[in-house]
């Protein structure tokens, strides 16, 4: 049953998102189906909330449950204060771990679905891509999923809304996401999107970053001066990531990021309405300043992965602008290839498929029969 729900989520939303290519007269003009949106929300909830992992090869879910019980019993936690506050809210209402997790998942998914439905010109294209890959890693990496949903909510409003104080709102929301998972503090750099730097200036900065990456590679993937930072951090959990390095593994997260950048650039370059496309292209460029972190650990591929929703939005918006064409159909195919690369390398190459992919489909307590 899990495979059926998963396949329907992807196929139905994708068909609705690209229907204009095989319905040239577009007799079914609606770009949004509330009915399909509701079904998609329910399907995503069942797939993520029902996820269990009995493989013994991954400890994320076990650690989250242990930390929740530890907080209830001893009122202590190693996690960030925002996440601890969420756990305390669950303990106040005497919720067991999985009931609390289900409640958080339901709220977090709304933070994705509502802005997508409100601002995307092609929301079902976005949901199709979300439900094909991100939903699997979201089920496994719970804290990152919550932070991702909070960030996505703030980022979509920042990029697409006309609110007067949207920049300030984005900063506040991003800080909240950072209190749930400290990785998300780095996205404060995206405030530079808002006319702070021109594209030419950003291109120059990224060129310098790439040159710096070459020096890091020559230096055996060690960042000059990093020891000073590690001494300041002391025993912080951040040192676990910053003190590691991978010889050639950085090629994969860099490839993932460059795929996002290429697709956003094509949408920006070929679109007649460049306003939103240019901001997402700039977001991909600006976050390339974190390429040196990719050279330490492939875990930092999350930096690029957490921007996938806005990339799916710019891709979906571009293919419904103007009239259908062979070029836009080719763009859809490139987007699907990019999705497959993320899917395969993340879930089959960088990770043992027995650890996350297989449990996602076989250990779902709601749908596995």
Automatic annotation (TrEMBL):
This is EpsG family protein. The chain crosses the membrane at residues 6-22, 34-54, 103-120, 141-160, 172-193, 205-230, 250-268, 329-350. Pfam families: EpsG (PF14897). InterPro entries: EpsG-like. It comes from the Bacteria. Keywords: Membrane, Transmembrane, Transmembrane helix.
């Amino acid at each position: 049953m899990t495979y059926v729900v998963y396949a329907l989520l992807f196929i139905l939303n994708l068909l609705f998102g690209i229907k204009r290519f095989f319905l040239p007269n577009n007799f079914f003009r609606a770009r949004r189906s509330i009915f399909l949106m509701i079904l998609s929300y329910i399907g995503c909830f069942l797939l993520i909330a029902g996820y269990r992992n009995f493989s013994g090869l991954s400890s994320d879910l076990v650690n989250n449950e242990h930390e929740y019980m530890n907080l209830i019993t001893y009122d202590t936690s190693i996690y960030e204060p925002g996440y601890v506050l969420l756990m305390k809210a669950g303990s106040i209402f005497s919720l067991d771990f999985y009931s609390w997790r289900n409640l958080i998942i339901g709220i977090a998914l709304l933070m994705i679905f509502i802005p997508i439905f409100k601002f995307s010109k092609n929301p079902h294209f976005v949901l199709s891509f979300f439900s094909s890959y991100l939903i699997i890693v979201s089920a496994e990496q719970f804290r990152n999923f919550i932070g991702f949903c909070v960030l996505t909510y703030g980022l979509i409003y920042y990029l697409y809304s006309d609110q007067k104080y949207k920049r300030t709102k984005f900063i506040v929301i991003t800080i909240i996401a950072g209190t749930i998972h400290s990785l998300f503090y780095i996205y404060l750099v995206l405030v530079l999107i808002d006319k702070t730097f021109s594209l030419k200036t950003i291109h120059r900065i990224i060129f310098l970053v790439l040159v710096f990456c070459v020096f890091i590679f020559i230096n055996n993937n060690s960042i000059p001066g990093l020891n000073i930072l590690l001494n300041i951090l002391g025993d912080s959990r951040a040192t676990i990531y910053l003190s590691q390095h991978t010889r050639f593994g950085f090629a994969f997260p860099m490839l993932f990021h460059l795929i996002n950048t290429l697709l956003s650039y094509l949408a920006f370059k070929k679109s007649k309405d460049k306003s939103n496309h240019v901001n997402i292209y700039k977001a991909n460029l600006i976050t390339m300043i974190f390429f040196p972190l990719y050279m330490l650990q492939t875990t930092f591929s999350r930096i690029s992965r957490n921007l996938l929703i806005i990339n799916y939005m710019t891709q979906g918006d571009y293919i419904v602008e103007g009239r259908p064409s062979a070029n836009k159909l080719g763009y859809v195919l490139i987007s699907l290839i990019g999705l497959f690369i993320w899917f395969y390398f993340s879930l089959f190459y960088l990770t043992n498929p027995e650890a996350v992919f297989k449990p996602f489909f076989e250990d779902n307590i709601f749908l596995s029969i």
